[in-house]
Amino acid sequence: MGVVRFLGSERVWGGGGLRPFSRLYWRVLGEWLVLGLINLVVWINVWGHPPLVGYDASGHVLYIWTLGNGRLPTPYDTHEFFSPPLPYALPALLRWLGWVELDTAVELAQGLNGLVSVGITVVLWRLARLLYPHDAEYRLSVVVLLGIMPVYYKTLTFIRGEPWVTLFVLLVVYELAVWLIDGRFGRGQAVRLGVWLGLAALSRQWAFLVFPALFFFLVVYGWRHREQIGSREIGRFVRYAVLVVGLILVIAGWFYAHLHLTYGSVAAFNRAPESQFSLANQSRQFYLGLGDGLLFADPVRPSFANQLIPTFYAEFWGDYEGYFLVYVWDAAKERFVPPFAWDELFGSGEIPPYVVTNRFVINRWLGWVNGVALGVTAVFLVAFVWSGVVSWYWWRGVKNDSKTAVYSLCWLVLLISAIGYLCFLILYPNPGNGDTIKATYLLHTYPLLALLTGAFWRAVRLRWHWGNRFLWGLVGGTAVFLAPAFISRYALFMWR
After folding, report:
1. Structurally, how many domains does the chain consist of?
2. CA distances from 153 to 156, 319, 424, 486 (A)
3. pLDDT tens across 217-237, in order?
């Protein structure tokens, strides 16, 4: 019973203590159980999934190799030369010191995602607790909503920078939420804010999608509170802003200066952009295509190539690109066949005798996954619209509470990130296969989407008890059906 009392104490849960085995007690235990399960699945995947299987996996491995030789890569070394170095830094350093070989360094880079996942889930839980410290059901709903997203497990399995961006963006939102809710902001918070933003920018360029959202939010916040802010407060804010910007430049500025000096642009990429930004850069099918009837029948490449909505949807809930759940094994060469070679391999319409694949079996189940996920997708979309309405009320001064301000911040990050990503797709079209349409690229928005959807769910719960039961049934049933999509089939194949 001593352990039970400790688990219910304020030191552990941050509340006023819990009665053992009460309904609240089980909800709190449920939070930690779900957090543990999420990270357990991530660790299973990073332990068993081959590191050379993933989006641009060979490019990321070559990045570690080159950085381990003591220099930044060039386009001749890897097509990922434009990527910031933070996700590769520790493995490359250990290789440079001669402590590990390349294969161990690559496995370490993949394994670090397990630690990043722990950070993401804990910061998200702390952010939810900051908003509603005595509402365990809200916190539970938030972590469950993150945990039912297959794209989370898939992305955390690969060697990429998006998980790192997600962690640092969450830390930025947490620091600002502390300021909005507790009303305190000092030099220490400014330093942390600058460090988190700098590290995010040093992880992957998607971090820059967050910067306009933060700037716009702070401008609106300052305008709304202009009568309460004196000249002394303005001076303090300017000093802190200079400190934050200075830290970002110190931490990440050198890398983007390198890109500018070496390749002529801080936005260097491995393909040239269109000469001008125009919606005509993409086809009508890109904007309006709905899957050609294959979204619920065969949601795997090359179906509905370069159609934004079905491809993004199939990548979010399944494995359209074929690097996580869909595999093709060449028994003659004893290696996995990369997805971009599948068309040639299956061009005759028959599976070669030396090939082992689940491509033409799991596709039907993935179609069912996409169908079952429609309900939760609708909840996400309704919650996003609801958050936008709430944010509008805050901007207009109708709602003035600090929690609504946090919702507005999160909603802006989601909205501007989505708009920025769409602009990227328009500037860098690939009509042949649409290989830049990946739900992974917006990973940093999904914990915030879970947070906002949890807030919408809470609003439903406080008004309609039946609505709360319906949502738990919908989300719970979807989670059970989707659970097999959380674990890499590549890992399971290797363990056979």
Report:
1. 1
2. 5, 11, 24, 6
3. 998 888 877 666 766 677 788
